[in-house]
Write a structure and sequence with these properties.
The protein is an alpha+beta fold and 350 residues long. The chain is built from eight helices and 20 strands. Strand 7, helix 5 and strand 8 form a beta-alpha-beta unit. It is an enzyme of class 3 (hydrolase).
Length: 350
């Protein structure tokens, strides 16, 4: 199957007086697994539905391949969409659900049988072809919804939070299967989610949205390690944010926090900002005094399995520190006096 890219140019969309998308520009590569990530109300599902052709007609351009689809009916865009609810017909068998789109397209009966069989084989559910949707588990229903979508051979696959109705363990399994299916088909795919772990583990790249505006585009690692602003830093994982000012002394840069601490930071890259971002795993903790350490008191401790998460009070700030857990390792109790040492080579100035 030929791979098709998507290009969005200066897209604006409103519901009445409420502007939902504001000047969206985006280039999704052919065959890419791309995620729209953001909180509720950020505009991610609206953007997906605009690509599919649902909702108000936006201003701007949406190019699927080299064709501008703005104003086209959904069925003329050759995109496949899997909804959060799966939207299976309850009165039709699995086979009839999967073949529905082909019958609507007046595909000959033998071709329908062959293509439905191939789609069911692809998702591993050929043995359930004669069952009804209410006889399937949530994960099986999701696979049938995928089979029904890919059987019509769309140029682009659109997924609107398809895993949100599954329990936690099944979500992990299904996102792996979803990625495997996408790689096998080579379909350009857009996956909408508010779950950063889902986006991180599936997407080649992602766009983080807030308030109808794309805040940053990049690989999961790029966005986590080098967030463009405080919203992205906070939304993608836990972030410690120190407010203050940078002073440069030759080859050394020091960040003076508002609460009086001094962090030595690399004198390179962007130093124009009033915030330092440090991830919890980039701060080590000990009871022995160390050079450049910040003195603090443990306020709270959480056992997360592979990690121990501490909340530590340092002057007027509360700092989150993650330490790896191993059997027999001593824990710090609430009230313990500790010293924190920051790995500032990973610090980001914003």
């Amino acid at each position: 199957m030929d791979q098709t890219g998507i290009k969005i140019e200066d897209l604006h969309l409103s519901f009445g007086e409420t502007q939902v998308l504001r000047g969206v520009n985006l280039d999704i590569r052919p065959g890419e697994f791309f995620a729209f990530l953001g909180p509720s109300g950020s505009g991610k599902s609206t953007l997906l539905r605009a690509i599919a052709g649902f909702g108000p007609t936006p201003q701007g351009r949406i190019l699927i391949g080299d064709r501008d689809v703005v104003g086209l009916d959904p069925w003329k865009r050759n995109v496949g969409m899997v909804f959060q609810s799966y939207a299976l017909w309850p009165h039709m068998s699995v086979r009839d659900n999967v073949g529905f789109g082909l019958r609507e397209r007046r595909v000959p009966a033998k071709q329908i049988r062959d293509r439905v069989d191939a789609a069911l084989d692809l998702v591993g559910l050929a043995h359930l072809a004669d069952r009804m949707p209410n006889q399937l588990s949530g994960g099986q229903q999701q696979r049938i919804a995928l089979a029904r979508t890919v059987v019509v051979e769309p140029e682009v696959l659109l997924l609107d939070e398809p895993l949100s109705n599954l329990d936690a363990s099944l979500r992990v399994q299904m996102r792996r299967e979803l990625l495997h299916l996408q790689r096998k088909l080579g379909l350009t795919t857009i996956f909408v989610t508010h779950d950063q772990e889902e986006a991180n583990t599936t997407s080649d790249r992602m766009a983080v949205l807030d308030g109808g505006v794309i805040q940053q585009i990049g690989t999961p690692q790029e966005l986590y390690d080098r967030p463009a602003n405080l919203f992205v830093a906070n939304f993608l994982g836990t972030a410690n944010i120190f407010e203050g000012r940078v002073e440069i002394d030759g080859d050394v840069a020091r960040f003076h926090t508002k609460t009086g601490e001094v962090l030595t930071i690399p004198a390179s890259g962007n130093l124009d900002g009033s915030n330092v971002v440090l991830r919890p795993q980039n701060i080590s903790m000990t009871q022995a005094p160390e050079q450049d350490a910040l003195k603090g008191e443990v306020l709270h401790r959480e056992f997360l399995g592979s990690q121990i998460r501490y909340l530590v009070k340092v002057a007027g700030a509360e700092i989150v520190v993650d330490q790896s857990h191993s059997a027999g390792r001593d824990w710090f109790d609430p009230g313990a006096q500790v010293h924190l040492v920051a790995n500032t080579s990973s610090a980001v100035i914003l």
